[in-house]
Write a structure and sequence with these properties.
The chain folds into two domains: 95 residues, Enolase-like, domain 1, CATH 3.30.390; 214 residues, Enolase-like C-terminal domain (TIM Barrel), CATH 3.20.20. It is 37% helix and 18% strand. The chain is built from twelve helices and twelve strands. Helix 2 crosses helix 12, helix 5 crosses helix 6 and helix 9 packs parallel to helix 10. The mean pLDDT is 97.
Length: 331
């Protein structure tokens, strides 16, 4: 384990930002994050506000790794990315997709509280109509279904030629059972929360409960930790974001660029969900791709999206507590 950089060095450049979303996503309208600069460049700490310090500390470990250590050598200079469609009404799908230039794949949120299966079917139908028969569609339930609900929903959505279904159920045992039930549909199951929120991220692979893994740099403790999980799991992987700013997305890009094999378009185009960002030119897809690059915000761009003082204090206190968790664990 590398020693932690001094906390004073982390806080010296820390800025708390609040980015408005064009469409409500994950139940929020504004995304908050801390960005700060290390010897290797700018990095990000942005665990969701409901996460406890123990889980959030893993995100801080990733941020410190990205800011204080060189990234692994890349094997590609550009990464294909997907569009992300929140759980909007079908009538809003075209407006959402218009924010993602040239993306050939769309990830559609389903199983959200307050929405029905009929709403999900209508949304996915609208995406298929917009993207045409050549477009790729994957759906993400964030563990929102039980096994019976998932089987029924996937059967209803199968007509839209799904690339895969992401985290249809919350538990590994449920995923394994569902995978057996829907084998006749030939629709792969991807694991996200069963990797990034699990004490044993490899359990889902050992249980034969998923066909591929969705990996995210921050929740898994950094680029190297994520690469090690993929190597040991021996399953295809797709890199996704956690609704990061462009600084955090550059961490995800470095992870995607370092993966030996990358069969799927990655969920790293989510800067297009924001109305503004920490830089004047956010990491938004151009013709469906993002270039491998490191983002460096300026004082002026950070000033423009600075969070209110009470939120700044909340985040810096949280960062300090998470640093303490890492220091006590010897990370």
């Amino acid at each position: 384990m590398s020693p932690l950089p001094p906390l004073v060095d982390v806080l010296a450049t820390a800025r708390v930002v609040a980015l408005p979303l064009a469409t409500r996503f994950r139940g929020i309208q504004t995304r908050e994050a801390v960005v700060f600069e290390g010897p290797e460049g700018w990095t990000e700490f942005s665990p969701f506000v409901e996460y406890g310090d123990g889980e959030a500390a893993t995100w801080l470990a990733a941020a410190l790794d990205f800011g204080w250590h060189p990234t692994p050598p890349p094997v590609r200079a550009h990464v294909a990315v997907n569009a992300t469609v929140p759980a909007v009404a079908a009538s809003a799908v075209d407006r959402v997709l218009a924010r993602f230039d040239g993306c050939r794949t769309a990830k559609v949120k389903v199983a959200e509280a307050g929405r029905t299966l009929a709403d999900d079917v209508a949304r996915v139908r609208a995406v298929r109509a917009a993207m045409g028969p050549e477009g790729r569609i994957r759906v993400d339930a964030n563990g929102g279904w039980n096994v019976d609900e998932a089987e029924r929903a996937i059967h209803a959505l199968a007509e839209f030629d799904l690339e895969y279904v992401e985290q249809p159920c919350a538990e590994v045992e449920e995923l394994a059972q569902l995978r057996e039930r829907i084998a006749y549909l030939d629709i792969p199951i991807a694991a996200d929360e069963s990797v990034r929120k699990a004490t044993d991220p490899l359990r889902v692979a050992r249980a034969g409960a998923a066909d591929l893994l969705v990996i995210k740099a921050q929740p898994l403790g950094g680029i190297r930790a994520a690469l090690a999980i993929v190597a040991e799991a021996r399953l295809p992987a797709v890199v996704s974001s956690a609704l990061d700013t462009s600084v955090g997305l550059s961490m995800g890009l470095a992870l995607a660029a370092a993966l030996p094999d990358l069969e799927y378009d990655c969920g790293l185009g989510t800067a297009s969900l924001f109305t503004t960002d920490v830089v004047a030119r956010p990491l938004r897809a151009q013709d469906g791709f993002l270039p491998l690059t490191r983002i460096s915000p300026t004082t002026a761009t950070l000033d423009r999206v600075e969070a209110p003082e009470d939120r700044r204090d909340w985040w810096l206190e949280r960062l300090t507590r998470c640093y303490g968790v890492l220091a006590e664990s010897g990370a």
